[in-house]
Amino acid sequence: MKKVYVFGTRGFPGVQGGVEKHCERLYPELVGQYEIVVFRRIPFLPQNAEKNYKGIRFIDLPSTRLKGFESCFHSFISTLFCVWKRPSIVHIHNIGPGMFIPLLKLARLKVVLTYHSANYEHKKWNYIARKILKFSEWIALRGSDAIIFVNKYQLERFDESIKRKSVYIPNGVEIQSPSTRTDYIEALGLSPQKYILAVGRITQEKGFDYLIESYLKTLPHDYRLVLAGGIDHASDYAAQIRDMAQKHHIVMPGYVDGEPLRQLYSHAKLFILPSYNEGFPLVLLEAMSYRLPLLASDISANKLLELNPDDYFQTGNVIDLAKHIQRKLSYMGEHPHYSLRAYTWNNIGEQVAQIYERL
Questions:
Q1: pLDDT tens-digit profile of 275-286?
Q2: Which distant-in-sequence residues (6+ apart) come within 8 Å of 190 by Cβ?
Q3: pTM of this structure
Q4: 55, 154, 213, 342 - which has most CB atoms within 10 Å?
Q5: Backbone angles phi, psi at 123, to 5 degrees
């Protein structure tokens, strides 16, 4: 059986992040056709992390929690491992780890790159880091044998030489039935249909600071705000969000997955995604699968999902978001129904397998 080695993710299951969730859902669809081996970063794995997951084998390698360096260090070690073991395909996620593609090509290995987002647009990076990421993008796009873009607007930015070996394959969603349990949300002091939910890492590009400001402008009411996401690296921004949450009784349960996350989605009154940057918004797809009323920033990635015009607000605009929140909270009709047929992981897995076979 042909081997596919994967790096550019911190690992899974039980690890926070859009790329991590993408890989956790995608690669089980390819087990049976390929032997899937995923490199994970030890410092980010939960205690008693599973050694095998749905037929996927893991290789856990040392890394660091230093912002920026963790990805570079782990990707370099993973690259050396790939050169040594010589799999049929090396599948890299994101442009940062793509800087090592020339080493893989020197070893005559076939490389697939999944372009999740233009990381250098994220506010958390300084000037030098953005330049390095931009250069990594240039290397990765030109060195890859095939490229998968999860955002078709990102694909359109590049020239024909890149487009010829590229394909747009969006992220998917795993449809789950709503949870009838409420023990987890009750432990957080929440009641069904009496809270607003946002999910994501506590980083600048997620826009949680202006979400909190908008929420406060809609008071008084009896709806709580829940920010479900972990803090990967200590930062002034994370400290600011924690301070604002503590002062205004906003719920921050940290990273949530499994049944606790199902309960948060199942019983929320409204879901909000205020991001400044997204590759393809997995959490928005998840909220849609639970038929939640939605509000999303009007960035191009969120507009890929073609929601109703009233479901979008001006990115970063506190007043506009506050007006949208007030209108949504006053709505008493039935929950919306969204068409998600184009976003099944089975369909996405088949498209990725076709790329592997072509190489």
A1: 999 989 999 999
A2: 224, 226, 251, 267
A3: 0.88
A4: 154
A5: -65, -20
